[in-house]
Each structure stands twice: as structure tokens, then as C-alpha cells.
């Protein structure tokens, strides 16, 4: 039996009940695929439901403020996904009259869409036989065919895409692509794959040669950068604080944060007070205290943020124009959102 036939047969018996699979609407498929990049289905599902309720059409998403979109995305991380989603929604609504591009070559031109997402949308919505290749697919193919080429190398990306394309079912490409993604997520799992009940166990090289733990191969990760963040949480007598939008191309673009002192290492209260930024912000008398008992370590893909939240109480401040009662209206990084949850409980 062909690889694709076996896979689709497994899928028809084991596929996950997911809301976007009840539709061929490219807007819904696009939303789900963007949300599930770097995100598990269990986490992304509630965001998908919230988004489709708030923005039932691409026109609704296009009309929304970026700040609103980012606030609804809060907690999913990788916020460039949300900004690109919003940018492309405006393009589709305003320049394409709400008509989603219908071919792989046109879909991949949209901002924030790469080979995997374009292949998924083109195959599921428009029946174009373009194979998806994501982490699940790399794992299934590397194990089944015994491939040791690194999946994050230029050669590996090309090799696996070519192989995936030869395996796709050209009559039911969307079903096949969803089948191989589900098979990797549910059966050929990263840890403890279900090899003994696998429909491919008689022909899988990794199972035969006991290589499931060695495959797939990945080149060493980029060195993780350590950063030291000191947020100044201002509280004035009239219950105001300072929040500002992060600009530039770094992390958390478009999200809001408290005034930040970034240091070369962990610093104490005396060093905070003596810093140039603190002196500029607070020329008058203040009270300062450390909120968290030990520094909070927030891990991003290539950065670890060692963070302290310093509560600074002062009578008034000319830049403090955000009421504490309105602070939940602002999109903030999950690091700050978690702090706010704890801080509001102790107030």
C-alpha cells in the first residue's frame, strides 16, 4: 500500500476534531495556521475561537486597531505573527476586495506566510498538491526513511521538501497534509512515539534500527543571549502609572511596558537609584521596593530575560498618564501580564 494511502487511512480513523477543519474558508485556515506556528493546538484553540468571534471576516480584522489585535494575541508570543496577520488582512480587504489568493505562488507573497503555511492553505482550501513540511513532517519522514540530514540545514530543508512533494496524494492533497501533521503530533511523537501500534512499523527504518531517539537530526542551536531587565512600576498618589509602547524591530514591538532599565548584570536597589535613567525620571523624593523575591527568568527562543519589577511610589509625575484602572486595556508582553496579575492581587 502506498505511503499516502496508509497515512490517510490512519487519519480517517484518528483525526482531531478541530473547528477550522469544518471549513474550507481560507481566512479561517490562514488564522489557524498562523496561530499554530510555534504554538501547541491545546494553547492556540482558545485564541482561534476568540479571534473568529471578534473578527468573523477578513474585513473585521482589517478594520481593527493593531493595539486591539496585539491585546487579543497576548500570551501567544511571537508577536510579529499578529502584526503580519493584521498587515495582510488589510491588504486582502482593501486591495484584493476580500478575495484570498488561491494559488501557492500568490499566497506565499503575503506578509508573514512562508512555504509551510502557503502549502497548507493552497492544499486544504484550493486542492493544490503542495506538500507541507513542519516539525511533525520532518520527524515522520526522517524516522520512516532513516534520514540523518539536519532538518534545520539548507540541504535538509531542500531534501525534505522534495521528498514530501513526491509522497503527497495529488487527488486529496489537503487531507494528506492534515494527515501527516496529525500523525506526527499524535502518533510519531517527539518523545515516546507509539511504534508498537504504528501502521508503518514493518517498513520504518528508525523502528527497525532503534533510531527513533536519534531522529530527526538538528544542528546546534544559536547561543542564547542573557539580558537583565529592571522595570520601574510607578504608582502616584492619584493612582496613575507610566506605560510606553516598544518601538523598533526588537522583541515585543507594539506592546506596552513600564519604564525599563536594562543592565549588564543583576543590580541592586542602590544601583537602580544611582542610574542615570532613574535620576532623570525621579528628580524628587520617591519610595522604591522590589516586588519579586528573586529575579524572574523569562525564556524566549534566543534570549533569556532576568527580570526584576521595582515598585516606585511618588506623589505625582508629569509622564504618569495611565490610570491603574485602565491598565488592562493595553497589550503587554506575557511577562508583564503575569506580574500585573500578581500585583493587582496584592494591592
UniProtKB/TrEMBL annotation:
Cofactor details (free text): Binds 1 [4Fe-4S] cluster.
Coiled coil: none
Reactions catalysed: Hydrolyzes free adenine bases from 7,8-dihydro-8-oxoguanine:adenine mismatched double-stranded DNA, leaving an apurinic site
GO BP: any one term: mismatch repair
Segments forming domain HhH-GPD: 35-186
InterPro entries named in the record: A/G_AdeGlyc_MutY, DNA_glycosylase, Endonuclease3_FeS-loop_motif, Endouclease-III_FeS-bd_BS, HhH-GPD_domain, HhH_base_excis_C, HhH_motif, MIG/MutY
Record carries keyword Ubl conjugation: no
SUPFAM superfamilies in the cross-refs: DNA-glycosylase (SSF48150), Nudix (SSF55811)
Pfam family, one: HHH
Entry's Gene Ontology molecular function annotations: 4 iron, 4 sulfur cluster binding; 8-oxo-7,8-dihydroguanine DNA N-glycosylase activity; adenine/guanine mispair binding; metal ion binding; oxidized purine DNA binding; purine-specific mismatch base pair DNA N-glycosylase activity
Known EC number: 3.2.2.31
Origin: domain of life: Bacteria
Keyword check for Iron-sulfur: yes
Key words, A-Z: 4Fe-4S, DNA damage, DNA repair, Glycosidase, Hydrolase, Iron, Iron-sulfur, Metal-binding
Cofactor(s), names only, from the UniProt record: [4Fe-4S] cluster
Family of this protein: Belongs to the Nth/MutY family.
Function: Adenine glycosylase active on G-A mispairs. MutY also corrects error-prone DNA synthesis past GO lesions which are due to the oxidatively damaged form of guanine: 7,8-dihydro-8-oxoguanine (8-oxo-dGTP).
Protein name per UniProt: Adenine DNA glycosylase
Native source organism of the sequence: Polaribacter pectinis
Highest classification ranks of the organism: Bacteria, Pseudomonadati, Bacteroidota, Flavobacteriia, Flavobacteriales
Amino acid at each position: 500500500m502506498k505511503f499516502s494511502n496508509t497515512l490517510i487511512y490512519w487519519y480517517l480513523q484518528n483525526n482531531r476534531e478541530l473547528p477550522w477543519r469544518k471549513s474550507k474558508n481560507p481566512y479561517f485556515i490562514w488564522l489557524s495556521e498562523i496561530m499554530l506556528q510555534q504554538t501547541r493546538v491545546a494553547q492556540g484553540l482558545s485564541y482561534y475561537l476568540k479571534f473568529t468571534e471578534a473578527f468573523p471576516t477578513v474585513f473585521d480584522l482589517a478594520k481593527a486597531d493593531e493595539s486591539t489585535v496585539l491585546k487579543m494575541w497576548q500570551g501567544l508570543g511571537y508577536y510579529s505573527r499578529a502584526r503580519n496577520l493584521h498587515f495582510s488582512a488589510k491588504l486582502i480587504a482593501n486591495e484584493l476586495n476580500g478575495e484570498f489568493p488561491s494559488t501557492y505562488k500568490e499566497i506565499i507573497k503575503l506578509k508573514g506566510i512562508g512555504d509551510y503555511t502557503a502549502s497548507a492553505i493552497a492544499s486544504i482550501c484550493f486542492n493544490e498538491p503542495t506538500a507541507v513540511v513542519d516539525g511533525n513532517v520532518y520527524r515522520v519522514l526522517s524516522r520512516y526513511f532513516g534520514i540523518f540530514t539536519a532538518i534545520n540545514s539548507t540541504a535538509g530543508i531542500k531534501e525534505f521538501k522534495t521528498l514530501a512533494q513526491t509522497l503527497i496524494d495529488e487527488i486529496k492533497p489537503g487531507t494528506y497534509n492534515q494527515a501527516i501533521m496529525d500523525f506526527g503530533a499524535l502518533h510519531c511523537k517527539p518523545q515516546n512515539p507509539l511504534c508498537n501500534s504504528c501502521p508503518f512499523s514493518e517498513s520504518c527504518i528508525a523502528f527497525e534500527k532503534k533510531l527513533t531517539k536519534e531522529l530527526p537530526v538538528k544542528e546546534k542551536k544559536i547561543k542564547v543571549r542573557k539580558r537583565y531587565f529592571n522595570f520601574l512600576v510607578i504608582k502616584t498618589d492619584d493612582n496613575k502609572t507610566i506605560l510606553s509602547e516598544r518601538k523598533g524591530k526588537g522583541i515585543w514591538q507594539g506592546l506596552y511596558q513600564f519604564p525599563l532599565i536594562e543592565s549588564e548584570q543583576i543590580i541592586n536597589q542602590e544601583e537602580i537609584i544611582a542610574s542615570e535613567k532613574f535620576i532623570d525620571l525621579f528628580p524628587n523624593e520617591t519610595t522604591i521596593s522590589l516586588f519579586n523575591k528573586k529575579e524572574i527568568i523569562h525564556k524566549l527562543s534566543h534570549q533569556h530575560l532576568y527580570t526584576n519589577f521595582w515598585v516606585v511610589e511618588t506623589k505625582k509625575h508629569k509622564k504618569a498618564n495611565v490610570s491603574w484602572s485602565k491598565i488592562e486595556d493595553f497589550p503587554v508582553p506575557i511577562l508583564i501580564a503575569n506580574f500585573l496579575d500578581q500585583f493587582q492581587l496584592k494591592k
